[in-house]
Amino acid sequence: MSTASPDLSLVIPVYNERENLAPLLAEISAALDGGDRSYEVVAVDDGSTDGSFEALKALKRDHPQLHIVSFERNAGQTAAFAAGFRAARGRVVVTLDANLQNDPADVPRVVEALERSGATAVAGYRAARQDTRWKLLQSRIANGVRNWLNGESVRDTGCSLKAFRADAVRALPLFSGMHRFLPTLIKMHGGTVAEVPVGHRQRRFGVTKYGMWNRVFRSLADAFAVRWMQRRVLNYHVREELP
From the centroid of its chain, how far is CA 225? Predict the structure, then answer.
């Protein structure tokens, strides 16, 4: 891998996704190799117990752009994103899931939207969800709760495929559960957020890590926490500073 900083850093939390990792990296290579943007892949193993870390180490031989961060124990998706943001060297950070439900072919689209719009972040929304009716209902309730409590209109807060200006996302205060609220946190700190439609696919391997508890009930608690932060965020502008 070149020592020069890449244009893009793809940050991917990994928790028990061993079978998805090889096809994921192959799809990322197909989408980005030979393009006009250099990139790295920051995979954060969140204490997997299925051999995901060992699989990543083996894959690094064929994917030198892969940067691996491994946790001692499971710490949650927000912690994995935070560690990935810290390790990322690119000027633009793109987040996506390791479960192959986000399509790496959409990465150029969200990055181009970021550059074209001049926004601080671009959030993808899944235009044609490939989920069961029960899962769709849970997601719609959770999304509605988050938007209602936080005065938001984000179409799909659960979609991990997003692009950020790296300096902005690294500056965000992150706590457990905050990965669902990254666009809101960006706005709280003076940034702007655009949205673009992206693809969505059914899970092929592994099992979902989310159910009713962490889709709806945890969303409610986390949304109240963000609401508290919204009301207390520091908001000031320096008129002049005399050294």
Answer: 20
Beta carbons within 10 angstroms of residue 31's beta carbon: 18
Measured between alpha carbons, how far is 120 from 212 in angstroms, rounded to an integer? Answer: 31
Longest dimension (CA), the chain: 61
Mean pLDDT, all residues of the chain: 87
Give per-residue pLDDT as tens, 118-151: 999 999 987 766 666 766 666 666 666 666 666 6
Which residues, 6+ apart, have CB-to-CB distance to 41 below 8 Å?
A: 9, 10, 12, 25, 28, 63, 65, 66, 67
Distance of alpha carbon 63 from the chain centroid: 21
What pLDDT score does 1 carry? 46
Lowest-pLDDT choice from 47-61, 92-106, 125-139, 176-190: 125-139
Q: Please return the burial class of 72, using the count of CB atoms within 10 Å of its CB with bins 0-12, 13-18 and 19+.
A: exposed
d(CA 23, CA 82): 25
3-class SS letters over the chain = CCCCCCCEEEEEEECCCHHHHHHHHHHHHHHHCCCCCCEEEEEEECCCCCCHHHHHHHHCCCCCCEEEEECCCCCCHHHHHHHHHHHCCCCEEEECCCCCCCCHHHHHHHHHHHHHHCCCEEEEEECCCCCCHHHHHHHHHHHHHHHHHHCCCCCCCCCCCEEEEHHHHHCCCCCCCHHHHHHHHHHHCCCCEEEEEECCCCCCCCCCCCCHHHHHHHHHHHHHHHHHHHHHCCCCCCCCCCC
Q: Can you tell me the distance from the alpha carbon of 147 to that of 145, in angstroms, rounded to the nearest whole number? A: 6
